[in-house]
Amino acid sequence: MLNSLLEPGMLVRHPGQPDWGLGQVQSNIGGRITVNFEHAGKVVIDGARVDLQIVYE
């Protein structure tokens, strides 16, 4: 599970919500990852349930 490696500023995509667009990690505290997505705004994701995909641009 790569979610533990996510740090603020990293770019990610949600595999189950491609229409949310690109997201930027805001925080990663205790497996709760806050991401600001282009088309969905700020979303808190349970890192134990969703494997976010890191985007290397």
Helical fraction equals under 10%
Determine the number of helices (DSSP H or I, runs of at least 4 residues): 0
How many E-type strands? 5
**Strand content range:** 35-45%
Q: Describe the strand arrangement of the main beta sheet, using strand numbers.
A: 4-3-2-1-5
Low-pLDDT runs of 5+ residues are: none
Q: Tell me the CATH topology.
A: SH3 type barrels
Derived from helix and strand composition plus strand pairing, the structural class reads mainly beta
The CATH architecture can be given as Roll
Distance between the termini: 21 Å
Radius of gyration: 10 Å
Produce the secondary structure layout.
Blueprint: E1 11-13, E2 23-29, E3 32-37, E4 41-46, E5 53-54
Antiparallel strand pairs: 1-2, 1-5, 2-3, 3-4
Can you describe this structure?
The protein is mostly beta strands. The protein has strands at 11-13, 23-29, 32-37, 41-46, 53-54. Strands 4-3-2-1-5 form a 5-stranded antiparallel beta sheet, with no helix packed on it. The radius of gyration is 10 Å and the shape is globular. The N and C termini lie far apart (21 Å). The model has no long low-confidence stretch (mean pLDDT 95).
